[in-house]
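Summary: Need help interpreting a holo structure output

Steps to reproduce:
1. Submit the protein chain below together with the SMILES for NAP.
2. Request a joint structure prediction with the ligand placed.
3. Inspect the structure token block that comes back.

Expected: a single structure record containing both the chain and the bound molecule.
Actual: see attached output.

Input attached:
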Amino acid sequence: MSTALITGATQGLGRALAEALAARGWDLVVTARDASRLADTVAALRSNGHDVVGLVGDVADAVHRDEVTDVVTEIVGARGLDLLVHNASTLGPVPLRPLRDLAVEDLADVLSVNVLAPHALTRSLVPTLEAAHGTLLSISSDAGVEHYETWGAYGASKAALDHLTLTLAAETPTLRAYAVDPGDMRTAMHQAAFPGEDIGDRPLPEDVAVPGILALLAARPASGRYRAADLLAVATSEVAS
Ligand SMILES: NC(=O)c1ccc[n+]([C@@H]2O[C@H](COP(=O)([O-])OP(=O)(O)OC[C@H]3O[C@@H](n4cnc5c(N)ncnc54)[C@H](OP(=O)(O)O)[C@@H]3O)[C@@H](O)[C@H]2O)c1
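--- attached output ---
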């Protein structure tokens, strides 16, 4: 029996990954801010017959994070937490804007959700992750590496998240720690970044990102930064050969 904590798991990638893990026998703790969507998600995930706990809250809220840490630690006990997924994320104010028009307070909010919250959760859960020789998975973005106009706040936050994740890997060899770029996905966040644009040509999370992450979890390569599309391509070529 394996247990995962996934932040932001009621839609998009977090939800699709939660469904894939539940179907493979994982117990789950899932979070999000909207209580009714979280209740629906938990009910659907429980139909697989495994333990699923939903915790309503904002990852930027320290009280919520303390509750998450307490519940996870209690559930997994001495066997430890197998997988922590930092998925919840914000773009910051939309429409996205050039840095010269980005208020310092808005940048602080983005860093709070995308960097400080994952760091705080990682810190509090490292002991239980180590007990299970578990995996830390931070959902990154190509915007953390490339420099796209108007994506500065989000991109800087993903670059920082990558750096924290891979530094933790260097410091904690008993764990695997991955930053994974899922690629463009047809989700609410992506639509918010491209208001009014038809994003129907982007893959759904279950098309590339989730199978890529499942391949990563199965293979457990060295800690590092990976692209879901590359992980899926390698897994597909291995099956074919
Ligand atoms: N979509 C893309 O093209 C794309 C590309 C590269 C990387 N990514 C990354 O992939 C991950 C998933 O993105 P997505 O597109 O699947 O997003 P999404 O469809 O907008 O879903 C986001 C999920 O996170 C929850 N959430 C958002 N803010 C939260 C907060 N502060 N605290 C707790 N939960 C929160 C949302 O529920 P509530 O609103 O109820 O909280 C929802 O369940 C993110 O890390 C994103 O940066 C996405």
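--- end attachment ---

Reviewer comment: Residues 135 and 176 are 5 Å apart (CA to CA). The radius of gyration is 17 Å.
Status: needs-info
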